[in-house]
Specification:
Elements (H helix, E strand, L loop, with lengths): L44 H6 L66 E3 L7 H7 L5 H7 L59 H18 L4 H4 L15 H14 L29 H19 L9 H4 L2 E5 L5 E5 L6 H4 L1 E3 L28 H4 L9 E6 L7 H6 L1 E12 L4 E7 L15 E7 L12 E9 L1 H7 L6 E10 L5 E10 L2
Parallel strand pairs: 1-4
Antiparallel strand pairs: 2-3, 5-10, 6-9, 6-11, 7-8, 7-10
Helix pairs in contact: 4-6, 6-7
Family: Belongs to the tyrosinase family.
Keywords: Copper, Disulfide bond, Metal-binding, Oxidoreductase, Thioether bond, Thylakoid, Transit peptide
Catalytic activity: 2 catechol + O2 = 2 1,2-benzoquinone + 2 H2O
Amino acid sequence: MSFSLASTPKPSQLFLRGKRNQTFKVSCKISSNDDQNVEINSVDRRNVLLGLGGLYGVANAIPLAASATPVPAPDLTTCSKSKINRDEEVPYLCCAPKPDDMSKVPYYKFPSVTKLRIRQPAHAADEEYIAKWYLYFYERILGSLIDDPTFALPYWNWDHPKGMRFPPMFDRQGTALYDERRNQQIHNGTVLDLGSFGDKVQTTQLQLMANNLTLMYRQMVTNAPCPLLFFGAPYVLGNNVEAPGTIEIIPHGPVHVWTGTAAGSTLPGGGRSHGEDMGNFYSAGLDPVFYCHHSNVDRMWSEWKSIGGKRTDLTQKDWLNSEFFFYDENKNPFRVKVRDCLDTKKMGYDYAPMPTPWRNFKPKRKTTDGKVNIGSLPPASKVFPLTKLDKPISFSINRPASSRTQQAKNEQEEMLTLFNIKFDNRQHIRFDVFLNVDKNVNADELDKTEFAGSYTSLPHVHGPNQTNHIATVVFQLAITELLEDIGLEDENTIAVTLVPRKGGEGISIGGVEINLASC
């Protein structure tokens, strides 16, 4: 299913400011063990953060209006089937039942909490805990079924080396937690790739762990010093340009890609894979590990705020008052506002603490000594617009200011921005960005000071009448810290290298700039 306006962007962050007279179609996922009629009462905040909003009725991927009117709960009468591609329909319809009068659907109220439900890391789950999971997925629903109000979803803590493998509790054939539509690479304790783009990185497991910790540091610390970058930029009605937040780009999307079947392979039972189940938006919720994965993304929201600085929740009323629609464990409908999903303890749950080694994993090794020869590189004006990123490219680019004071850095972040990026959003893509290196850089080793970040995208399906599959994206990287670490603070011009990792022949980039922004 999909939302339908003039055109539909992919799900991203929720700065939801829509007009109430607009209609949009509902996007939903179902679980293979689901009766297709219920939704959890205890809302997963990760869904609010990324705009996915649970099984039914979230305001998913809605372009934002310039008006100051929060987006209401979706119009369920417009729910319909979507297409995987031009010729293949999604094989099921998962529209939620429509209440007779949406205006009478009550708003969510914080539950009465006598004891917090504590979400545990999945890799450490014991047999008693795993047995409970065989009944159902969601905390409140499951707690009701087994008469255990303290039961909590586990989280797949892929941000810690001990959790950087597929959780064993989900890999037991013949159980309700097993999904045969997974990539074969997940078995036998293989280390996952938090930047996965569908192809296996040819490196050691130790190096892959180092890459993962580096990606976490870049996404949670370096590139997310403020809400604008962590959550992403707002959508504006009539402008479908996306500027996704760091947590959505990595690790959210790549964990989906790594877990799902290899695109183009043969699915169990026949048929061509489009990344099912986890590797495609339409089918991701069919895999029980989906909820375990999202539980950890939700945890990252809390971890990000605990780092400090400007890392706080958004305060815009339009965002706080935007609405979601759910069914609870008793099949009763209710509406939820974003403002009610910001404090997990008020919602009745918290996370068992785990070390976060990525916080101190700032890259210290350098690829090169000194400064790259800028004179040997073409200026950005000679490289862009770029029609296809089918090979690594290096270019020089001017900075708006050099030798900035600490006060100036505190007030404004220096950002490298790639704009008007276009690609087919039905395909996997990824490219990496480096500073002060040439196009011969080893992109399989990310734990270097010069690595700035990566852009990835998870394939997703469209409405039955949608023909435009080209996404338009703005990609921003905070580079203040990198310039300090590399020793380029006093330089007026720096070198940038883009390295395609997947789908580069289908990626075009309109331009690039470095600017200063109060984020």
